[in-house]
Fold this protein.
Amino acid sequence: MTLTLAHMDENSYIPTYIDEFNRSHSDIRVELLPEMPHEALVALMASDEAPDIIGFGYNSPESMAANGWLLDMYTLMGDFPREDFLLEPFETDGALYALSPEYHVYTLVGLEADFGRSYSHPLEDYEGIGFNYFAGDEFLTYTIPLWIEQNRQGTDCDFTSPEFLELLEAARSMDKAESQSSKELALSIISGTHDLIIKEKRENLELWPVGFPGGSYISPIAAMGIHAATPEPEAAWEFIRWCVAERETSSELTLNIPAMEEMFYELLHPYEDLDPEKVVIREDGTWDYEGRHYETVFSWEPSITERQADMMLGLVESLDTVIYYDAEMDDIISEEAGAFLAGERSLEDTAALLGDRLGTYLAEKYG
């Protein structure tokens, strides 16, 4: 049986998934169609030659789902252990039209001593706090898409609301804050479970992913869905299920919560299953065990702490929103917020301009 897969992202991880899947499966083969732009894929989706599987990359599947082109993967799962996987953030009105086996987490990172161990904070916690990138502009670029996702109704979003005005004011207060504030925040795009842990060790600080107002969010890098008209929905789901549940990822930031828990346990209890009397450590730190040599540096000491393991697992379990990267939206935010942050435009005028441009863009994108 051969399935077809069409995707839009030239930097997609999906071709790698396909190669590995085809090598390990003899009954199902996935054929990758030539890469195509969004408009071409939309036309293909509406035709009689629609692909069985769609790779969205960084693109939102919302409009395709609204056209009835995508299958709710919950209807195919059977006894799949849904509770063990991070699926709910990808839902649309209770249906699951897309999943990304690998993803990044967008968050703000601050000192644990200042922010505590919460993954979400009210807006006032960010006011007047230094920010070690581009202050207000960076804050708004990553916060406004989250605010839109959490507040819009279809294509409608109230950019004149007190909450949105307060968001703009918080960004302006960051630009006025002392850059060396002890509560200095840093944007962090986490692509692996060790990113923040390594940053802690490098800076000798106890940090915490404090999130944006509204929390941290998932940015998919390999989202996929199943066409509603495919004659082989079970086979298409088997491919996506394998990518999510069985394929080993290099980032270790997966939807598989038990797999992450097992990985952290092994880091906290290294070489627990080895017989200490059979371990031979060489002068350079590499080691031998039962006649086999290992080039890694051996240590019985944990490479992370219980706190770090709990921090990262807690962050992943706190995620409840998916934001698909949108370069055009980011450009609009930067262009219109820049004059406001520089003191050249009033708060009300900025909100009105952002509302006009972003409102038009949302209507075109999701209308």
Notes: The radius of gyration is 23 Å. The mean pLDDT is 88. DSSP finds twelve helices and eleven strands in the chain. The CA atoms of residues 268 and 304 lie 6 Å apart.
